[in-house]
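Chapter summary example.
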Amino acid sequence: MPLNLDALIRLLVLVGLGVACALILQPFAEILLWAGLLAVILKPLQLWLQRHLRLGRWWSAGLIMLVGLLVLIGPVGALAAALLSNVSELVELVRHGKQALPQPPPLLLGCRPKRVLFYYSDLKRLQLMSVKYRCIDRAGGRGRWH
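The structure predicted for these 146 residues follows.
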């Protein structure tokens, strides 16, 4: 039984809409996959909280979300505080006219991984090279590279 023109047009429109939906959802595919995985993995915990703590669905889901946020915000906050202290130290060095990078943190000095120290020494060498080879014309305010 051959397809008539009306059915063919409907089929093409349906395929076109499916492709358009896939293109629209493509940027969110990874996020949706992670959300689905987390929902499947955390469902037994939610059921356990409902049974043992006698919480409702929404309260147990909210408790899981709150603990998850605390687990994420704690390390991110510590990282932000460390970054701000390093940036303030670098700003003070620039204000006092020192043209050198500060010493690496004690954590890096204690374990001495080769890659990190080589990277850090390369940064110091590059910064000193840029300071050495840049001549600032005080009268015109322009920088010339030598």
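To summarize the output: The radius of gyration is 29 Å.
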